[in-house]
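Run log // design_07
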């Protein structure tokens, strides 16, 4: 069985994120185990390689993202480590149907935040919504990233290894002052009980408990607060390009999702019956 340590080092040198490296190496090891100890990935004839890829995708019922990642990492591994380019076009998954997310209303967001009694949990949920953060961005946020004097928040090395600057809203500061006064974090803005980063699992649990408390029936997740941030900005008249920058989207096409869920763009459209 291959251990892929050299490939792992190469991914680090190429500045792949820690999460991507973990996912890629995990998929490689899973595929390596699937074909068995008697075979090696780089020694498989192309037809057999395709055969085993088809089998593992079906047997493990890989979702669209996992299937796409498996093909990507195998192609990269064979090219970089063995100079063996491969063609996986026949196995490329069809893009999944786009499903519009359920959007939390302003009242629902207000209830989620205000009915959360734990000061730290309340501050975390308020921060995600106030700044439109991804969960990882909140977890990695450090105290020094908040500049109250210049009213700005620095998001460092977010998705795609990009930094961005966000406005520091006055409405968020009371939540953070109350939280900081009680918990006194030392490095990261939100830390676990024993210090260090707050865990993604615990953060998701905080949101789940909060949304259950409010009895929201929509299909939502922690990321719904970021969706709500973007949608509510759009409905308040903020330009789509500015929202793109605030969210850290590389393409405006990603941000345009919110034009399909914004009530300002949909519900304000008059019916032709009105013109009769």
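design_07 sequence
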């Amino acid at each position: 069985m291959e251990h892929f340590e050299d490939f792992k080092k190469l991914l680090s040198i190429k500045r792949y994120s820690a999460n991507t490296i973990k996912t890629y190496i995990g998929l490689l090891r899973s595929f390596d185990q699937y074909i068995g100890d008697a075979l090696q990935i780089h020694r498989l004839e192309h037809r057999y390689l395709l055969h085993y890829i088809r089998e593992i995708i079906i047997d493990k019922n890989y979702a669209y993202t996992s299937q796409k990642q498996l093909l990507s990492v195998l192609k990269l591994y064979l090219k970089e480590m063995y100079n063996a380019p491969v063609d996986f076009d026949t196995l490329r998954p069809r893009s999944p149907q786009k499903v519009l997310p359920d959007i939390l209303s302003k009242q629902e967001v207000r209830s989620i935040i205000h009915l959360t009694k734990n000061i730290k949990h309340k501050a975390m949920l308020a921060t995600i919504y106030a700044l439109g953060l991804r969960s990882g961005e909140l977890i990695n946020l450090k105290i020094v990233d908040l500049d109250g004097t210049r009213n700005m928040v620095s998001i460092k090395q977010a998705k795609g290894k990009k930094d961005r600057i966000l406005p520091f809203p006055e409405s968020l500061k009371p939540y953070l002052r109350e939280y900081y006064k009680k918990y006194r974090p030392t490095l990261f803005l939100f830390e676990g009980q024993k210090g260090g980063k707050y865990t993604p699992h615990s953060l998701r649990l905080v949101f789940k408990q909060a949304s259950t408390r409010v009895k929201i029936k929509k299909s939502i997740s922690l990321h719904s607060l970021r969706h709500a941030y973007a949608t509510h900005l759009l409905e308040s008249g903020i330009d789509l390009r500015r929202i793109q920058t605030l969210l850290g989207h590389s393409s405006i096409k990603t941000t345009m999702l919110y034009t399909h869920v914004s009530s300002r763009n949909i519900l304000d459209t008059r019916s032709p019956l009105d013109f009769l």
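Residues 7 and 81 are 7 Å apart (CA to CA).
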